[in-house]
Specification:
With about 325 residues, this protein is an alpha+beta fold. The protein contains 16 helices and 14 strands. The strands form two sheets. It has a seven-stranded mixed β-sheet. The chain has a seven-stranded mixed β-sheet with strand order 9-8-14-13-12-11-10. It is elongated and about 75 Å long.
């Protein structure tokens, strides 16, 4: 009986063992993480290359209309539109306007093209010289595109000056073929600067272009040497239009050799001894001419008239030996 019980117990244990779960349970399958998408490459913004050349930028800017006109008159537009690179010190319209009266008109005449060309090339430095580089030239001379001519660079309290008194007011206007720096005064090569300083009343009138009749009359009256003298003189200069307004045939008659004295008297009636600037003329009631006869001076609504009907239309054209004021009517001395 005891053996039978043991047998049943063993058999029961074997059945249980056969039915039992495995010792290590099977784990649920683990899902793999979704792959992370790579970000799109980021484009680093860059400045667009400058597409306009020096001439195109100057044309579009609006502050350089006189410079552009001069470049065109000198036939330099194609050169400054070329590959370069160039550094241009560009005078503003105000800088050109500050030149002595009549200087620009004279430079734009076809016969003065070479002089104009030289002045413009004196504003150009080969290569692309940025402001930081210009500052590094303090106390040095820089070669220009005009042969054998240099400009002096000076830095004073952070401001750059060329040839002592020409101020660089705006820097680093980049172009496709170089860079523009803006200046407040027109640069003049040494030869032109010296020549400009030496222009007397006669040479100023000749170069101006508005006084061809007056110049012819001065020559016919043999007054050239007088008006080229030390002076100083103040000349009230009638324009060509003023002479053209004289009665028909008057000028031709005055230019005849037999009428030389009458012509001389008329011209001397336009000249006052001393340098009388516009501010002084306004304070006068009469102007004592070197003919020995006075011309009356009146001021009306801010305008100045000589002998009531000759208006002073342009003032203070300074010369080496005096000053010219432009009038719109020829003065005739009282009989």
């Amino acid at each position: 009986m005891k053996n039978k019980f043991v047998f049943v117990f063993v058999l029961f244990a074997m059945v249980l063992a056969a039915c039992a779960s495995p010792a290590t349970p099977t784990a649920e399958p683990t899902s793999m993480p979704e792959p992370t998408a790579m970000p799109e490459p980021t484009t680093v913004p860059t400045e667009a290359p400058v597409s306009k050349n020096i001439v195109e930028i100057a044309v579009e800017d609006g502050r350089f209309t006189t410079l552009v006109a001069a470049v065109q008159a000198a036939d330099l537009a194609e050169t400054l539109s070329g590959e370069g690179p160039f550094t241009v010190f560009a005078p503003t319209d105000d800088a050109f306007a500050a030149l002595p009266e009549g200087t620009l008109d004279s430079l734009l005449l076809p016969e003065n093209k070479q002089q104009l060309n030289d002045i413009l090339l004196y504003h150009v430095v080969p290569g692309k010289v940025m402001a930081a580089d210009v500052v590094g030239l303090d106390g040095q001379m820089a070669d220009t595109a005009l042969a054998d001519q240099q400009i002096q660079v000076k830095v004073d309290t952070g401001t750059v000056y060329l040839n002592e008194n020409v101020k660089v007011v705006i820097t680093d206007i980049e172009a496709s073929n170089g860079v523009i720096h803006v200046i407040d005064t027109v640069l003049l090569p040494s030869s032109d600067e010296a020549a400009m300083e030496k222009l007397d009343i006669v040479d100023t009138a000749i170069n101006d272009g508005r006084f061809t009749t007056l110049v012819a009359a001065v020559q016919a009256a043999e007054l050239v040497d007088t008006l080229k003298g030390e002076g100083p003189f103040t000349v009230f200069a009638p324009t060509d239009d003023a002479f053209a307004a004289l009665p028909e045939g008057t000028l031709d008659t005055l230019l005849l050799p037999e009428n030389k004295q009458q012509l001389t008297d008329i011209l001397l009636y336009h000249v006052v001894s001393g340098k009388v600037m516009a501010a002084d003329v306004v304070g006068l009631t009469s102007a004592p001419t070197i003919l020995g006869k006075d011309a009356s001076v009146t001021v009306e609504n801010g305008k100045v008239f000589l002998n009531d009907d000759a208006e002073i239309i342009i003032t203070d054209i300074e010369t080496s030996n005096g000053v010219i004021h432009v009038i719109d009517t020829v003065l005739l001395p009282p009989q």
